[in-house]
Amino acid sequence: MKKGIYILMCMCILLAGCSSEQSGKKAAKKKAVTAKVQSAPYELLVVADKEWLKTGTGKVLMEVLESPIEVLPQVEPAFRITSINPDAFNGVFRTYANIVCVDVGEKYKEPEVRLAVNVYARPQRILYVTAPDHRSFEQLVAERGKTLLDELNENEFARERTLLEKQKSGVVSRQANKQFGVDINAPQDIDDIKVGKNFFWASASKQEFRLNICMYTLPLQDMTADQMLAARDSVMKINIPGGKEGQWMETDPRAVLAEKVQVGGRQIAAFRGLWGIRKDAMGGPFVAYYYPDSVNNRLLVAEGFIFAPEEKKRPLIRKIEASLQTVAGL
To answer: What is the pTM of this model?
Structure first.
């Protein structure tokens, strides 16, 4: 009898422990951030003393954050910025997707940029930029300015990619798979395909070529930037002619940026530039990603370009570039 009572007591203690553990897990779950960000795409909140932002040091930071997107026909900043004092940082302001919190004071031992993810909402990135004095702050911004923008830009690209997963063009996905054995999440509005030799051009037929994606292959070999652009022009001359004889798409050599970008954990070549139609005023920005495919001994080029006269290009070119980042199957 005593043995039975002892076993029963042990079981009660064990159950109580399990119950306590489960309660702890539930409490932890409740603390998880579930709120969705409320800010519009490409909005940035700067949390800093507004008067300080007007100082020379504050202007150093703002010049970086207000930097324009590279290689567009007109100047367009990467973000639309709202600034507030630290004591106002509550409520809806905490649901911004992109936040930069700034503080300068002797309490900090050294200048630092710290990244926090999904603190108040999802998907959110908060950059805490701190320094013990103005001089070290300015040096920090000079050294890490591009990194700051890259972190914020990647958050916006991630939001675009998530949206493209839910609203993608089945027409483009099927053609990419059929012709090149890869997948890509193109904007849903892109619904018209023109197919060439090792090439296709997909466009939004109802929007007068506003959004466009091309995919084609080049030999897998070492090429200089000039050789890659010459190859691009050769492909476009054949596949995207103008409305009259002697017209075709070509690269504006005066406005081209070659760089390396990170996609899916690997570094690939990319070009940003302006395209135009030879002997015509039609043109706009483009971005091209070059994916090495050693299995098939080829370089797969995924390129997006837009035609949007008198419109802001930022949301369009960013959406197209996010699409290029979704190429999968290589």
So the answer is: 0.85
Average confidence (pLDDT) per 10 residues, the chain, 330 residues: 39 40 44 84 96 95 93 92 97 96 95 96 96 96 92 93 95 97 96 95 82 95 91 95 87 91 91 92 93 95 93 92 94
Structure letter (DSSP) for residue 45: E
Helix, strand, coil shares, percent, the chain, to 5: 40, 30, 30
Q: How far apart are CA 226 and CA 251, in angstroms?
A: 11
Element (H, E) at 214: strand 211-219
Cα–Cα dist 285/306, whole Å: 6
What is the bridge-based pairing of β-strands 266-277 and 249-263? antiparallel
| Cα distances (angstroms) measured from residue 41 to each of 37, 61, 124, 323 | 10, 21, 12, 16
Phi-psi region of 153 (alpha: psi -120 to 50; beta: other; left: phi over 0): alpha
